[in-house]
Amino acid sequence: MDSVIKAIEDAKHILIIAHVNPDADSLGSAIAMYTHILRLHKKVTLFCKTEKINPALRFLPFFDKVKSSLPKAYDLAMSFDCGSYRRLGIEVNAPLVNIDHHVSNEKYGEINLIDASAISTSEVVYDFFKKNVIALNAKIATALYAGLIDDSQCFTTAKTDQRAFLMAADLIGCGADNALCTQMLFKERSLASVRMKAKMLSGARLQCSGKLVTTLVEKSFFEESGAYDVDCEEALHESLELVNVEVALMLRHTKDGQIKGSLRSKSSLDMNKIASVFGGGGHLHSAGFVTAGASLEEIEKKIIRIIKGKI
Ligand SMILES: [Mn+2]
């Protein structure tokens, strides 16, 4: 029997974990599994450490069931889209099933279901459901589809392949709501996020003969715009679309006084490798890290030094 199926079968109370500051892939994948476990009439808790989750994700089924406090007891935990143990935001006190697609995954689970070739964690969950002949209802399909279009940026990233489209077609057939997902993830934005984007893009700088674009997000940007952390993503993606740009770097302050770096590329330069210099990781074209003890400008300079001559 599949080891994950057996772990679920043996458990009495399962803790489903999305990573801190969840995106549609992490929360969508977690919700798909949560929905499946509900059907088994097992006790299950949907958990995310972040109290204020990006409201754009409120369309996901069971969004109102996400808890930011832990249950007293659980005997199995499952994490989704968490490349490192730190991303869970908690210490887990039970056997852990780690389901992910980051090439940098630290394999911190008792069971690790990791497919770095998958475009999204929701594809890993989808494959798991298919392999074990688990039926997809409309709620599961919508949650998985949200992860797929978010991580593939609506089928535009380099990793988008036949598998992605076949999965999409099947999910739509199972009742995934494409109009709702695309509306909420790509066509609806707050004024605060637009203001944040304006600040970020007006300060963007070209380096390395115009092949690297860097964006520094000052603390004041958040206070002045009222934007969420996740609202920085769009400007990062758009900066990568600039002509001749091959790598986009965004550096921003986190609430706990650290600096978060996000790297995106359309070249073959390995972003996961660069992020690992700062203790982070991710994928070939997309990676991130959290660091401390230096200014935004100092980290920017260090990355320029690493990248110079390579793109
Ligand atoms: Mn993902």
What do you see in this structure?
The protein is α/β, with parallel strands linked by helices. The protein has 2 domains: 3-186, inorganic pyrophosphatase (n-terminal core), CATH 3.90.1640; 191-307, Diaminopimelate Epimerase, Chain A, domain 1 (Roll). 37% of the residues lie in helices and 18% in strands. It contains 11 helices and 11 strands. It has helices at 3-10, 24-39, 121-131, 138-151, 162-173, 178-186, 191-202, 219-225, 233-240, 271-277, 296-307, and strands spanning 13-18, 43-47, 76-80, 96-100, 111-114, 205-207, 212-217, 247-253, 259-265, 281-282, 286-291. The protein has a 6-stranded mixed beta sheet with strand order 6-7-8-9-11-10, sandwiched between helices. The longest helix is centred in the first third of the chain and has 16 residues, at 24-39. It is globular. It starts with a helix and ends with a helix. The model has no long low-confidence stretch (mean pLDDT 96). Bound molecules: manganese (II) ion (MN).
